[in-house]
Amino acid sequence: MSETSQATEARTFSPPEQLAAHANVGPEIYDEAAADRLAFWAKAARRLTWTQEWDEVLDWSNPPFAKWFAGGKLNVAYNCVDRHVEDGHGDQVAYHWEGEPGDTRTITYAQLKDEVCKAANALTELGVRAGDRVAIYMPMIPEAVIAMLACARIGAVHMVVFGGFSADALASRLDDSGAVLVITADGGYRRGAPSALKPAVDDAVGRSSGVRNVLVVKRTEQDVEWTEGRDLWWDDVVGRQSTEHEPESFDAEHPLYIMYTSGTTAKPKGILHTSGGYLTQVSFTHWASFDLKADDDVFWTAADVGWVTGHSYIVYGPLSNRATSVMYEGTPETPHRGRWFELIQKYGVTILYTAPTVIRTFMKWGEDIPAGFDLTTLRVLGSVGEPINPEAWLWYHKNIGGGRCPIVDTWWQTETGGHMINPLPGVTTLVPGSAQAPFPGISAKVVDDEGNELGDDSTGLLVITDPWPSMLRTIWGDDQRYVDTYWSRFAEKGFYFAGDGAKKDADGNIWLLGRVDDVMNVSGHRISTTEVESSLVAHPAVAEAAVVGASDPTTGQGIVAFVILRGSAEQQGEGASGDDLVQTLRNHVARDIGPIAKPRQIMVVQELPKTRSGKIMRRLLRDIAENRELGDVTTLTDSSVMNMIKEKLPAAPSED
């Protein structure tokens, strides 16, 4: 999104009168939070059921290591399931689940409670104890949610790995987290065909000494390799358990889950979230940001539980608020491009939360597709994962929201746990493309390089100036990396900075500008340049690689790689088989990291632009990849390198 388009965005949209009149929160919420931030979050925490009240709302005596609601005790799974059943809502649907092939399951809160209790008993039988780590590598099926809640119920720490990641990615996460159990499935359905998961698990577990058992859900009925004594069928172990299980209360700071995210090194970071503060913020933001009415709404976060969006707004936020949710296994175009709209029509979805990448894909397909379905039940739309450009916002508003639904554009991260900057649908006059204002109780500012707050109509760095309940507590097993990564840039001021640039417009609205470090945002998924470079250099044909994220109209950023070949491969790169080698390298990265990391373009070059100290100038490569005028080249060892690369630039990106 260009700064010009942001600066000149003049169209605004007021909240619908009916929604504003009955909204869960009104404009006074900002004053309430500003008057006493800690009292505000304590009130939000009291929406949950605690077995023991906390001693202190926030313990910030050892920054940046926060403790929220210290001394308080609760059970996260009880708050998501049991209490609703006890309150007489057992017959309410928790999930309308739809498999990609069209099979369906309707799961009520009472049924979900029974399944979670059985799974908790099964985990206990397998020797899993509070504090143990359990890896979950699953398709989008109800058992993924059940497994997460069962872990939460017994105090085990779940570590969900997106089902599209490779065996290598899974193995490194098993190793780093010290997982004792893997819960997986034979496979899932993707783009009309079964996609196997068990082989990747077998490969990864073969390299991990700590994993004692692999629990396998039957989904696709594919043949799977079987290790007797280690591998167990979910149906056999969970199926015979009692539906009675007494939830134990855990301290508010008890670890709930680890989620791995890309860093600026090749080693992913294990983001640690704890229980009380995390559940408080995801529950409250879900209720306030989407104006959720538990008795009437049908809520759909169209994401995967393998990402933080799925944790916070498919599982913990919605369930804690007794939402009825839709959960869909497959892709938007299977078996046809209207599948999502068909589901909105079928289940009467009222709130839809998805990524700009998908919206831009729908734009490419054309407005006649959503026009073929009844989408009139929708009342609130949401956007997540990356900044939404104004054109996509307006298309979403008109063609999916029928011109009547507010769009809640949410900025937050794996690290923040829950919403941080977003409009409120019954309060905010919307500006397309802007996340607008910090959520009540969140202290976010746009600052210059020294950490001084900037006024309106300026561009700088986005920082969070005060701790928030759902913040990450550390990087698993690496407190120093946590301090260095997020708190060192503005250490003297105590600001959290995770690498995003931001702009404030003349009215003070915040616009996100994407990352200022070497982490790329591809379709809302964070992938480090280092991780992709490491993969490319691991191929025998490649001597050196530099990777940048370049603007992409569909995915937000596309991965563009520049590679220098080893001597033996150099002739291939220049000759007729150069295209073949490029495809081989693209496929190599997809196999190594996962399809999401497959470079959009790979250019074979003779040299890379380097400073005199040997640092690759990725900024210049980004200029090349985005067809911009070259920035400052004065620090280069040899500025003619850039001209050589520019001359070789292909007219269009390689296609799959």
Fold and architecture overview:
GO terms for molecular function: acetate-CoA ligase activity. This protein has a 7-stranded mixed β-sheet, with helices on both faces. Strand 16 (298-301), helix 12 and strand 17 form a beta-alpha-beta unit. The protein contains 22 helices and 30 strands. The chain has 656 residues and is of the alpha/beta class.
Q: How would you summarize what this structure contains?
A:
By secondary structure, this protein is an alpha/beta fold. Helix content is 33%, strand content 22%.
Annotation keywords:
about 650 residues; alpha/beta; seven-stranded mixed sheet; five-stranded parallel sheet; 22 helices; 30 strands; disordered N terminus; AMP-bd_C_sf; magnesium
In terms of per-residue confidence, which ranges show pLDDT below 50 for 5 or more consecutive residues? 1-8, 571-577, 651-656
Euclidean distance between termini CA atoms: 25 Å
| Cross-sheet strand order for the largest sheet | 5-4-17-16-18-19-20
Based on secondary structure, the structural category is alpha/beta
Strand content: 15-25%
Report the count of strand segments.
30
Residues in helix, %: 25-40%
Largest sheet: 7 strands, mixed
For the residues shown, what is the average pLDDT? 91
Shape: globular
Radius of gyration: 24 Å
Number of separate helices: 22
List the helices and strands and how they pair.
Blueprint lengths: L2 H5 L9 H5 L6 H8 L1 H9 L10 E4 L7 E4 L2 E2 L1 H14 L3 E6 L5 E5 H17 L7 E5 L4 H13 L2 E4 L6 H11 L3 E5 L1 E4 L2 E4 L1 H8 L7 E5 L13 E3 H6 L10 E2 L3 E7 L7 E6 L1 H14 L8 E4 L6 H13 L3 E5 L10 H9 L3 E4 L1 H10 L2 H4 L8 E4 L6 H11 L6 E3 L34 E4 L10 E7 L9 E2 L3 H8 L13 E5 L5 E6 L3 E4 L2 E4 H9 L4 E11 L3 E10 L1 H8 L3 H15 L8 E4 L13 H8 L14 H9 L8
Parallel strand pairs: 4-17, 6-7, 6-8, 8-11, 11-12, 16-17, 16-18, 18-19, 19-20, 29-30
Antiparallel strand pairs: 1-2, 3-13, 4-5, 9-10, 14-15, 15-23, 21-22, 22-24, 24-25, 26-27, 28-29
